[in-house]
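Morning!

As promised:
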Amino acid sequence: MEKLSNPKETIQVLQKHEFQFKKKFGQNFLIDPHVLDKIVDAAQITEDDFVLEIGPGIGTLTQYLCECARQVLAVEIDKNLIPILHETLSPYENVEVRNGDILKQDIREIAQTYNAGKPIKVVANLPYYITTPIIMELFESRVPLANVTVMVQKEVADRMKAQPGSKDCGALSLAVQYYAKPYIAAFVPPNCFMPRPKVGSAVIRLECREEAPVQVADETLMFRLIRASFNQRRKTLQNGIANSSELSFSKAQAAEAIEKAGLDANIRGEKLGLSEFAKLADLLAEESVNGGKK
Ligand code: SAM
């Protein structure tokens, strides 16, 4: 059997199984061997590695992963794809296909079962409608991760890499950069997929950090502050904090912490980097210890 990266083979498999693409699952299958090589190279997979693939589709990328990893687990939500995957992956003995929603899997347990709890590699041509929840779930649930190599919408890759103060920087940028170092490996045009998406894409590797780049007493509070600042970009940081439904600080408390952090009283949250958010979180955590809303 020819590899699925040959578009003729993909068309043949789709026709044989009378497969109907489902927009709601973000189904755009890769049909370019160069892009598949780039993803596998970017993920730095060795024959000792266990790889978790999210959304294998008909198994195009999975075939490449099986050829360089020790073992692959591929989690696919669309049950109509499962018989197809069993057929296209039948030449490989080191792959297991699981039908399910990645957001409902216990990935810590997967790392434990398949990799003795050691850091795993995650690879995916992600369904764009849930890119951010998937990435955040991987990081926040403290799955042991070596790296995460994903195809995402180009704008999302730009945001993941954006520096504080730049227009692209948002809560996702700071969260990704707290947990990982992002490297863009390739830009991928729409004609590399079937069907063609309306947007350009990029392959990005998130190299997971062993140690966080800033120290903060309460990580959850820091991320609530970050979300409060970017959800209300036009407001000053003081107002953003005081208005957030996730936080319970008054404007006076916010103003005091901002002053103690050495920041301008009218500063907007979007100007801050991780170290400033960490400092502010530590100052506000002290405020909560010393009393409620003033
Ligand atoms: N990996 C294949 C490729 O590169 O050709 C398919 C990529 S396609 C962009 C995204 C895949 O993710 C689809 O097969 C889709 O059904 C699957 N998917 C969508 N939501 C999912 C979820 N929540 N959990 C697991 N798989 C999902």
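The mean pLDDT is 94.

Hope this helps with the figure draft.
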